[in-house]
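I had to read the description of the data format several times before I understood it. In essence, backbone conformation is discretised, so a fold becomes a row of integers matching the chain in length. I therefore recommend that a typical entry be quoted early in the introduction. For illustration, here is how one protein appears when written out as sequence plus structure tokens.

***
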Amino acid sequence: MALSSTGITTSLVGNAIGSSSRNVGALCSSSLINEWSKWKPISSNVGTMTLAELKNRNYGISILSANTPDSLVTQIKNNSNLGYKYNKPIGGANSPYRLGDFRNYDHSAAMPVGASYKNGDSVNVGGVTSSNHASYEKVLMGIENMDGGDSATYLSKDNLYTVYDNSGNKIGLKRGALVTDGTNTVWYSDKLYWWTTQMQKFKGKTVTVYEFYTNATNTPTNAYVANANDRFLALPEPVYTIQVKNDVPAGSKIVNTICTAKFTNSTNQYVSYEIKFSAVGATYRGGTITNVRAVLSKDRNGVNVIASTLLSNSLYIADETTSQTFTGQLYNRGGSMMAYLLIYYNNSIQFNTQLVY
């Protein structure tokens, strides 16, 4: 709960930030202050802090900024891997300690912007083909506090990341990230495109990700062209270390099973089928499947098997291709009207369909 706008005392402030000190200077310069509160002690020469002065001083927060991502990373490294500086008062006429700066102070205010990754996260980049790129694209999107207006006691993304050009027009910002293993370095805007040749170089490595906001664009289809007006602004906590694995992403599959099956006549004695395996599409990566079988069953779980046939001991489907077509018939012993065709491979059911006339 935020402090009141009146009646601020050193005891109230000390209790709020968890300090035993009752000295104004010590409280205003304390490391226990939550810098993400909108109202807090900041460096300014005014006698009484106002909302207008807070805005003028960017709420006491200096976001690291550069014209290139490489320059920004250098600044971040030189700032203990933080993307901002909190400008506290230092005492004296030009930066006095004001106990009144704690009016409306919110010790529980959350960081206004969070990164897309966390330390120890991993990304799987194996199995890339020319059409399954969507499985290898990471949208850069972390928590962003929305602006609660002048009455809010916490800082928002818009409070800290509103940028204007030389004509006074607001610059639109998007997320970006730079990835490096110390030798190779790649950056993109909006997403990280792990399927690209440059990003595939990180397979099996530990990489560092630096996240930022930018008005520049860099994607596989819209390559970056440097401009003097480019801005790169660090996230508050922009640096994370992640593992790049040669595994396939969750949800990625070897092949797509394309199958039609139906009773051949009204007596239900036979079931005809046509089966193809395809590695074309955003989810499929191709590869080898083994013990490929078509099974006729009274249930979709293969408990009550009626008939089965081996299609292939081992079948390789190259990425972006479709295998040969398998056609045939299975004898529906007993003429069951309730039957399912199951496709097995790699020792489990991979597809099932209920029979129709």
